[in-house]
Amino acid sequence: MGAPWNFVRYLPLAQRFLRGGRLPALLLAVARKSGRQGRGFSGLKEDLRLLQNLCLAWWRGEYRAIGSQALLAVVAALLYFLTPLDALPDWLPGLGLVDDLAVLAWVLSAWSEELAAFRAWREAQAPEVLAVIERLPEAESLALDQP
Q1: Distance between CA atoms of residues 26 and 79, nearest Å
Q2: Which helix (H) or strand (E) holds 102?
Q3: Of 135, 132, 6, nearest to 79 (Cα)?
Q4: Could you give the C-alpha distances from 105 to 17, 47, 77, 93, 113, in angstroms and in order?
Q5: Cα→Cα distances 78→34, 74, 115, 126, 147, Å
Q6: How far, in Å, are 28, 42, 90, 101, 114 from residue 94 at the CA level?
Q7: What is the C-alpha to C-alpha distance for residues 63 and 72, in angstroms, rounded to an integer?
Q8: Which of 103, 106, 134, 135 has the least C-beta neighbours within 10 A?
Q9: What single DSSP character describes residue 2?
Q10: Distance from C-alpha of 120 to C-alpha of 53, rounded to nearest angstrom
């Protein structure tokens, strides 16, 4: 199955985010938005957290065993989730997150082997190590890092 039709336009944007060093700000924004979702979206939150943790481990240089295309797809999916005006605008009650869920489901399925390898790596880490690796960056430090 191919990528969702509206998803592919987020790939170049994801590439710019990675090249521009803006991944930490993206992860912080995704955490804020996912925190506002209701309890009915617990599966969405778990999937988002997995993708965030992967990106945090990659950003910190702790986990680099992911292909560049898989990483790009993960970042694009996070950007898609964050964008309020995508295929189905987020403000549509009951429907706004359906396309976000579809994109996340596609990424989780298309890159399942890469994500399984990350899960295995993650399980082999000590909890105190993961706490450091998966800590979200502080918003204040990101503001200082911007040109």
Answers
A1: 7
A2: helix 98-110
A3: 6
A4: 22, 9, 10, 20, 14
A5: 11, 6, 15, 26, 23
A6: 25, 15, 9, 12, 31
A7: 15
A8: 135
A9: P
A10: 13
pTM of the model: 0.82
Structure tokens, 124: 């082999």
* Residue type present at position 25: A
The H or E element containing residue 92 is none
The answer to whether 125 and 133 have CB atoms below 8 angstroms apart is: yes
Half-sphere exposure of 119 (CA within 13 A, CB side): 11
CB 101 within 8 A of CB 44: yes
Distance CA 138, CA 31 (A): 12
What is the spatial distance between Cα 66 and Cα 82, in angstroms, rounded to a whole number?
A: 23
Q: Torsion over CA of 100, 104, 110 and 113, rounded to 10 degrees? A: 180
